[in-house]
Amino acid sequence: MFTFFDVHTIFFTVGRQQVSYLEVVCTLAGLVCIFLAMRAKTANFWVGYLYNLLLFPLFLQRDYIRVCCCNRFRLP
Question: How many domains, in total, are found in the chain?
């Protein structure tokens, strides 16, 4: 179960870029969220929550939070 949330569990490879199961599911949830928003459905709210909950472990493991926060305040 927890191996699904690991970014090192690779689903497929494009060139040299490896894509994990978590990234694929996050992308699909984001696309469903956009589709439901276009249709003005109320389920978009809950799919958006799911999308954000799936992105959280992805950002933690890829260390995107530190990169986004620290690079903004770095002095030249």
Answer: 1
